[in-house]
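ARCHIVE RECORD
Type: protein–small molecule complex
Small molecule: NAP
Source of inputs: curated submission
Record status: active
Notes field left blank by submitter.
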Amino acid sequence: MSIENLDASNLALIDAEIPVIIGDGVGPEIWAATEPILTKAAALSGKKLAFFEILAGEKAFKETGSHLPEQSLEAIKKSRIALKGPLATPVGKGIRSLNVAIRQKLDLYACVRPVKWIEGVPSPVKNPSHVDMILFRENTEDVYQGLEWAASSEQAQDLINYVKQRFNVYVRPNSAIGLKPMSEFGSKRLVRMALKWALKEKRTSLTLVHKGNIMKFTEGAFRTWGYELADQEFPGLTVAESEAAQGDTRLIVKDRIADNMFMQSLLRPAEYSVLAMPNLNGDYLSDCLAGQIGGLGMAPGANISDEMAVFEATHGTAPKYVGLDKVNPSSLILSGAFMLRYLGWNEAAELIHQALKRAFAESIYTYDLARQAGCVEPVKCSEFGRAVFDRLS
Ligand code: NAP
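STRUCTURE (tokenized, with ligand):
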């Protein structure tokens, strides 16, 4: 399986048993709403889908003493596919992100997030239908690699002394220190996946999003490596924006500095299609774009390598809503539909999209969308799940 299968029914699977991490916080609530929808959609299209739980997060810690048991990682490796709810990470202390750990340990090097408005979903922007982008975010490097040391720690002090001695660079004493590694290999494989997908889907452009004016040798290099890869590996199929003629039918490769891209995504979203970017930019920009199509409750995602894929809701554990049966399960439902497409089960995925559309057309909204729409009484998370389930046909 690979990203190239995203819209191809080239897997002969008619049965699938998929490991699922239900997750922390609102994870159990959104999963309870999602599971029946996925299994019914599969059944309606003549497939048999089942899930088995694997542990990660707080539940795993309670039951096994480990937040991320080796057994769970092994189950994903064996199945080569999984679905996952949100996992909590404390700020400024405690365990490092389990989400990042899963991505790094399984080398799921691309975080892939399609951002497309669904008719009937209230949005804060005038033309949400102009938003149809897919983000490819590098998932294993950058400041997310976890190379940072606390202020006043021995390690931070050693690094401060080292850069003073070796490079004659002054860093304020007792500063915290973080490193931002970005490699040619890591950047190029991410851009390669995005370009292959863009070409296969006949998209019009791929935009490299970077902050290379400031971080010249990391983010600036990401831009250089991206253009280089397009040129070397996809000659004749791609063209740099600066060299494209009017009406050029090749895939246009362009780049935007990240701060400008945030503005462009609001003012001229129709001009952007496939986006490839380093880790931190992708984290920020995907939530920003999710806001335009209704919010984090509407944003699906996946972490993908050439070998396997873990599909997950873009949002976190939404701590203030835990146990209230309130949040929007659509992000996980759509991540499940994305997973079905990856399996080549396009018909099942399409049924889910249609059922969601029908629910939204009747203004059946959880609190987040009702708040945006105004004057609509919100339904609960479980009621929304039931409404979508009932509209699957
Ligand atoms: P969050 O859990 O994504 O929630 C931020 C806000 O987004 C919520 O307060 C809510 O907005 C909205 N939201 C999130 N999920 C929603 C849903 N299903 N339906 C409707 N609205 C939803 O982010 P956070 O509060 O910054 O982070 C909480 C924890 O989650 C942290 O431990 C963080 O590390 C973790 N996290 C995990 C993942 C992951 O597992 N992949 C991703 C991000 C964060 P309103 O308040 O406006 O209603």
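CURATOR ANNOTATION: The chain is about 40% helix and 15% strand.
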